[in-house]
Amino acid sequence: MTNLYDIPAGLVTGIEDSALAAQIIVAVILAIAFYNSVELVVLLFLTFKKYRGLYFWSLLVSTVLGVMPSVVGPVLHFYSLGPLLLALLISNLGFYAMVPVQSLVLYSRLHLLLRNERRLRQILYLILLTTAILLPPTTVTTYGSAFVGTAPWNAAYQVIERAQVTGFCLLELLLSALYIREAVHVLLAGDPALLRRRRESGETDGGGGGGGGSGGSGAGNVIYQLVAINFVIIALDVGLLVLEYVGLYYLQVALKSLVYSIKLKMEFAVLGRLITLTGRHAHREEPVARLDEPARVPDFVGGEYAAVDFTHPVRTSKPSMSSG
């Protein structure tokens, strides 16, 4: 635990004075995060047929304007490759697009399971309020600690930085917890529309004997996978929180970019399984379809991607042009 009145290690001088091993580790972490972000952009444009909707744009913004600058800024900063003012400016802009917009990604896919519009509106207001409260003081104290460097500025920065990391961590924990609760509710309580879709899917896919049973089992497997993915996301958030309170500034900054790039990639796994489970138009954020409406893949995703893991590109000989 560092002294609150000290300038965080790496905030001003970078990591040039750190051991060579630490410099290499940070470089590898940032390189992987940047690679993940490039792969994410490719996956986005390979996967989505129509570039619209909160889910698509929040993923794209969080990746291109979030993760990428959050890698470039620390590279300039930690290795003294550019002015500190420019490095911190790029890092802060990347942070604005990476962390709050990640919450919008989580929020946008809640529409697939949570159909209470009032509750969804409250969640959106909470995201906006958290962002408005936490971002401005974090930015001000970052520059104050870096360029003024007095004990009060350093203490203010460290307290507000920890409050900011804690606040966004709690926000994402809440969103993941709501998502897990709704997913488990679908599994245990049995949403008629969703279960009807799974039964139809089981019969259509030709699963041998007992189409209804295999459909139910398939829905259960999808739910378990979704819950597991969200628990991994929670674990990553908690890991960042621990690093912040331990006082490992430069490691926490580097790992944040990597963690958020991993979380965004996992969104493709979530998306694929949500499409399998719901078979509805996610980008329109509409209620779950009526029982008499035929199951279909959302029209912003190619049919060949309907039941696959979106963390990897899909091999297809020809794009399917058939509908339904």
Characterization of the model:
The protein is mainly alpha-helical. It has one domain (21-305): Up-down Bundle (Rhopdopsin 7-helix transmembrane proteins). Helices cover 71% and strands 0% of the residues. It is built from eight helices and no strands. It has helices spanning 20-47, 54-78, 84-110, 117-147, 151-190, 192-204, 211-246, 249-278. The longest helix has 40 residues, at 151-190. The model is unreliable at 203-215 and 280-324 (pLDDT under 50).
Compute the separation of the termini in Å: 58 Å
Shape: globular
Query: Quaternary status of these chains?
Result: single chain
Number of helices: 8
The radius of gyration over CA amounts to 22 Å
CATH class: Mainly Alpha
| Topology as a string of helices (H) and strands (E) | HHHHHHHH
Largest β-sheet summary: none
Architecture, CATH level 2?
Answer: Up-down Bundle
Pfam families: DUF7703 (PF24802)
Organism: Aspergillus fijiensis CBS 313.89
Keywords: Membrane, Transmembrane, Transmembrane helix
Protein name: DUF7703 domain-containing protein
Kindly list the characteristics that best describe this protein.
324 residues, mainly alpha, Rhopdopsin 7-helix transmembrane proteins, 0% strand, globular, DUF7703 domain-containing protein, transmembrane, transmembrane helix
Give the arrangement of secondary structure elements.
Blueprint: H1 20-47, H2 54-78, H3 84-110, H4 117-147, H5 151-190, H6 192-204, H7 211-246, H8 249-278
Helix pairs in contact: 1-2, 1-8, 2-3, 2-8, 3-4, 3-5, 3-8, 4-5, 5-7, 6-7, 7-8
In short:
The protein is built from 8 helices and no strands. The protein is an all-alpha fold and 324 residues long.
